[in-house]
Amino acid sequence: MVSGKGGTGKTTVAAALALALADEGRRTLLVEVEGRQGIAQLFETEALPYEERRIAVAPGGGEVYALAIDAEQALLDYLQMFYKLGGAGRALNKLGAIDFATTIAPGLRDVLLTGKACEAVRRRRKNGGFVYDAVVMDAPPTGRITRFLAVNDEVAGLARMGPIHKQAQSVMRVIKSSETAVHLVTLLEEMPVQETVDGVAELRGAGLPVGSVVVNMVRPALLDEDALAEAAADRDAVARALARAGLGGASRGARAGQLVGPLLEQAREHAARLELERAGRAEITGLGLPVPELPLLADGVDLAGLYTLAGELRKQWTTT
């Protein structure tokens, strides 16, 4: 399960992770639960229906399938599965009862979404093997991920017997199993880092499995420590270096002098950003989790970019 503060690129990381896990002939299911159709946009395909559809082929012949889980359709599945209300359930849907139930009870919506995902995890082929080698969920943001995953514990406590109780317990067994991990996505910025630290604490407090913290959109350091120190200490040296670079022809000295101030200001801003990133990275490292890093893609994230990020994830998780 992949979560993260809004704007950190959690959907992109979830998609890249699905591609990475589908390497070497494996089959992965990528699940969306927020109804944003972000997966379809990333893979440049039409909107995902409430059915599993192949959307990509990974290196080595692996396949990525995708599913956009709709709470109303999932409730109809539940009514049929537990109470054999196929026709009656569809009639309730036409009357708007299904939409009403999932709207007034957000906890019910989360039960349905996690339940449908866990059903895909447990599903087996006729030969006994699992249909999917891995299931990746583009999960809700960090601020509500713990509540989202723990809701079945509450349901199991409220419904102390019967099919709902058994279903909630089976979902929590999947969520809390050793084969499940919640990966949090962050940027090296103050607010995302703090929300990630708080999210890890909440997940651990609820007994939910935390996998790693993925640092996304990492920008390269343009100047090393020595270069930053030299630029800050010797304004005249910077001006002479600009002049030697051939700026301005006969008047290159004057023009170089005009550039010194803005360039030094940029260097100071770059140094300040590096210091903030260093502090954020130290906080994240202190959590004691694997911390893979993904680069900022200069041209944005398109389908080719997803494959690039998937390759980075494969490489880093293999070495760790």
Automatic annotation (TrEMBL):
InterPro entries: ArsA/GET3_ATPase-like, ATPase_ArsA/GET3, P-loop_NTPase. Residues 1-175 form the ArsA/GET3 Anion-transporting ATPase-like domain. One of its GO terms (molecular function) is ATP binding. It comes from Streptomyces smaragdinus. Pfam families: ArsA_ATPase (PF02374). It comes from the Bacteria. This is Putative ATPase.
